[in-house]
Design the sequence.
């Protein structure tokens, strides 16, 4: 496996105005950064500008600290920018939450194992014991936190402690069948990725395949989104559907839907890990 | 163009039990009918059986009347069947309702003109004058019924009268921007086909592309369904989606969605015209 | 209908190097152009740069002639650019070629009629009389050039003369069932758009639905491409597929494929008319 | 996990004639079989009839041997049927062949582990050592047979011996990068399932993603098919595509294509394992 590249990735959002692309690109070139990716987007409705730019640091003349300071002073402050800086060799540290269904978990673990996903997975957390065996197969620590109405606050506090211990910065809910409290969610804004087994906003809530079957739809879907305090209402990162017909039962929906769920979730995790997702007003910009 | 075939088409629904397929097929063969299509479906949840069977009448020994009487006595009554009998050379007589958007109307008219759709279109009805020109191009009668809250009851009564005059049996709402009254709908149960520009049940009601844009979905859809008293809640006949991204505005959704709408509506009209659709408990069986 | 906007659209390809986007954007801003669209692409394999930029001319300080001269001198020559300049109110003048199948023709005519396609259609050309009626319905001139092996050279010469008379700059082959001679094609490089009813390169040549049926594929497709001297080998602009199964016959493929063909062809014509397509080494860049 | 059901599954092909469905269904009912699935298909081009019927054996009055004998005498011989009888609790015994790419292998192993695939996997065979670790994670025997032009005949003979030892009846080539000899293939007719990373027949042979990239297609696909003596020409079981654009490089095709490959292969293996696939004249009938 090749040594990981050491690139900088800058994600920007700000009020739109002329010359923003040049301004940022010039700043990087002036300090000898070799730009290898640049994509931008303007939201015409809100007059908002979004940009992702990545450059090689090999001959870059600024230290990380200088970069942050200078960029803030020279560009971000005058242009009223929100910005985040990532380094390509600082991989997201991901905790996977799961319950009983193994397909999304196995899919993420095998993608991680094969090097397809640039993430670290220090821990798998579950409210049940069912998937300990899957974690063991891939040599990943498994922590069991059974949740009841009575112990939920205490258990979430311990989970947060564990996440801190592992320096986790991203949570992936791989068919985790517990609702996280608002308080818990507030610790990881735009950092908890869920997979919901319907094309949201249709069939939010429980048993979406049953809802879809009862409504008689001709397509079933899956949606990956960031978790917010409003259940199933967070910004959508990826969605897809498959065609179904009257011939199929709920259990066919469930079986065929699993393929959707794992692919859609993996697409969202990949985009997040590549620092390609920006959130603005509960919608995402997913750079290509 | 070849002379239309003279086939019989029987659509059946009844409680499921062993031997139904043989029973019906044997009845037809006994009277010298040559079966050219047979498809059936069992809804395991409700124990319901559905069947579509089509046969050539060339050497069939029963008159239309004898067929109806005998089938009712010998099979339908003992098996508690609901059934409808169609003849392939009795084409549905369709009134198209439209308002301002021409894409679905032009699409249906050109499919009709080229012989793709086995229907007659005696009349186009609109609450505006905008599409009179389109009707004229294809030599089809155009009737203008402006609708206001005050005149709605009276206008619908006159529309019903016109539909009766033209022996219309099927209504297609090709982006018709008026809500039909429950009373009006009750005259054409499972015979009014609408196109809604979203993947229902998501984004029912007004301005679905705007709703979709605001929610930030990654797919937009279109749904064709039978109209019932519950707006956008009728049995779904056909659905499809296209992929969208943050790059697209509402007007891109509208433009690209038009292709979906016209294809999905035409698919539903075709299936209806081919007598391939059965409704059961607000869901459709669409035979292949 | 609103008055057409008067914007300039510049399409550029050149060897990739740092700062190209800024260079072009700065040039336009310096002369008071308000940029409303900018998209670029780098082909890393060939080190090639592509760009589409559109700006409002309302306060732009250069005349059309000055713009061309200055852009060539200041930027295009030093950067070794190929470039084309379009104005949004100079609509492509399109001749549609068709034979017997009417679905693509009707689809283009109704899109044109409703204002969806920013093109003029001065003439429809056919090797048969079948579609004269369709042209008449939309009030468009129809010219009949029957083609035989003996008269082909002469007829193509007359067609070219007719196209010149009508100032045609784009040809759309809407299921035109004649092969254009290399000589004819050479008059309209990257300006003849064809629809082929398969997912090229599969099933090039005659009767692609029959080929697809014989091979037993589970998807059938349609491909719109620029015509080159190599039959079915030109740069692909748009492609799509639909799912089929063993239940479907060739005539089902033909019927369902028509919807694909017309949508895929219209997508390609729209992108071409919006000046969103660049060709490089027999492939297209289709800007979003 | 519930005890596996003990059902019989009969797959039939024969010349089409009236009454075949009734004939078979009656035979089963007469001996007290409770039919839980029946689907049939007529190929009108070849006048061929295909059927899949499944029934519960709980109260069935015939032993396995009696069933075979009686069915042959009473029905198969007079109707010139080819038929195969399976029992739902006799799971296919599958050997997976793989080389270096792990995504299809991990996908099959995790589906197997979770009980989604009703198969046994006694052995994984590879021409390299790379994936031994994946086999170990799931506790499955891994056999390494390096292949060179010189040792191929001998190695294949040993592989065949190993497959016999394990009573393997189905081979799945999960991105196995060796071409099997005709002689080897002849031992498992319609029992070797391959995944090819293109929408065949486009881009047969080596490096299909590179071929697709060079041709500039707007869709890339994957195809699962039975292996025959003609490379990439066997009967297609499942196919799917994803949309690509000029923005994507070959390595994007490779990355995104992996999701297609594993889902399409798994769909084919599932249909094969459920005894839902019949081959006729190099095409498949895949029952729903």
Sequence:
């Amino acid at each position: 496996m090749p040594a990981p590249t050491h690139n900088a990735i800058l994600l920007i959002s700000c009020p739109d105005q002329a010359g923003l692309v040049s301004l940022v690109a010039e700043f990087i070139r002036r300090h000898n950064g070799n730009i290898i990716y640049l994509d931008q987007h303007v939201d015409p409705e809100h007059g908002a500008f979004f940009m992702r730019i990545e450059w090689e640091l090999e001959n870059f003349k600024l230290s990380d600290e200088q970069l942050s300071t200078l960029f803030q002073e020279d560009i971000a402050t005058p242009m009223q920018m929100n910005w985040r800086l990532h380094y390509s060799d600082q991989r997201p540290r991901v905790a996977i939450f799961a319950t009983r269904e193994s397909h999304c978990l196995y899919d993420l673990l095998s993608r991680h194992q094969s090097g397809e996903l640039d993430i670290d997975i220090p821990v798998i957390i579950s409210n049940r014991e069912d998937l300990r065996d899957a974690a063991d197969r891939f040599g990943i620590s498994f922590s069991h936190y059974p949740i009841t109405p009575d112990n939920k606050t205490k258990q979430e506090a311990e989970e947060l402690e564990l996440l801190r211990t592992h320096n986790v910065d991203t949570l992936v809910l791989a068919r985790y069948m517990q609702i996280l409290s608002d308080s818990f969610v507030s610790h990881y804004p735009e950092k908890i990725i869920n997979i919901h087994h319907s094309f949201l906003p249709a069939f939010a809530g429980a048993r979406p395949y049953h809802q879809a079957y009862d409504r008689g739809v001709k397509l079933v879907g899956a949606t990956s989104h960031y978790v917010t305090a409003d259940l199933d209402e967070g910004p959508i990162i990826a969605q897809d559907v498959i065609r179904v017909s009257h011939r199929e039962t709920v259990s066919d929906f469930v079986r065929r839907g699993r393929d959707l769920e794992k692919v859609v979730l993996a697409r969202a995790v990949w985009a997040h890990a590549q620092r390609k997702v920006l959130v603005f007003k509960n919608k995402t910009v997913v750079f290509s």
Q: What stands out?
A: Chain B has two domains: 7-87, 93-286. Chain B touches chain C through 21 residues (CB under 8 Å).
